[in-house]
Write a structure and sequence with these properties.
It contains three helices and eight strands. The protein is α+β, with helices and mostly antiparallel strands and 154 residues long. The strands form two sheets. A five-stranded antiparallel beta sheet has the order 3-7-6-5-4, with helices on one face. A hairpin with a 3-residue loop joins strand 6 and strand 7 (116-123). Residues 129-144 have a biased composition (Basic and acidic residues).
């Protein structure tokens, strides 16, 4: 998998999951959710060479029935081929329910309680040079910030 495919996989799962939940109030993915818009983190591949990983996600609404919401996400992620499990906190004062979904491309979590929810996704390590890719992201952002905004017509 390439770094670009890794970023696409991350935001594809986020977008599909929030759409599946059918709720308003979820943060939108970044406008520039591409390999030029997301900063990579360095990681080490199984062969010892350098690779990159990406992370992202967003906040959303809580649920009166957090268990049902978590089971809904678990079922959906399983339908996509992820190994997905639901865990409830052993602390009775903590009402969070966590769904963890894993496959060869990513590790995802959906955490929900009555007040809020969030989805966090981390991609697996893929071949890539984090310094070069990070420099490309920085250059792209600099170019975007120096592009003049057109003045609206009266």
């Amino acid at each position: 998998m390439t770094p670009a495919a890794s970023v696409a996989t991350l935001y594809d799962l986020y977008t599909k999951t929030t759409a599946h939940l059918g709720e308003s109030g979820w943060e939108a993915p970044p406008v520039d959710a591409t390999v030029l818009g997301v900063t990579p983190e360095s990681c080490t591949l199984d062969d010892g060479s350098e690779g990159v990983t990406y992370d992202g996600g967003g906040l959303g609404p809580g649920h009166v029935d957090a268990v049902a919401a978590a089971e809904n996400v678990q079922s959906y992620w399983k339908s996509l081929g992820l190994e997905a499990t639901v865990a409830k906190s052993s602390n009775p004062k903590n009402d969070r329910i966590t769904v963890t979904g894993v496959d060869v491309k990513l590790n995802a979590q959906y955490v929900v309680n009555g007040d809020r929810a969030f989805i966090s996704i981390v991609t697996t390590c893929v071949p890539g040079d984090s310094e070069k890719l990070g420099d490309a992201v920085e250059k792209h952002r600099d170019e975007q910030s120096t592009t003049p905004t057109p003045t609206p017509a009266p």
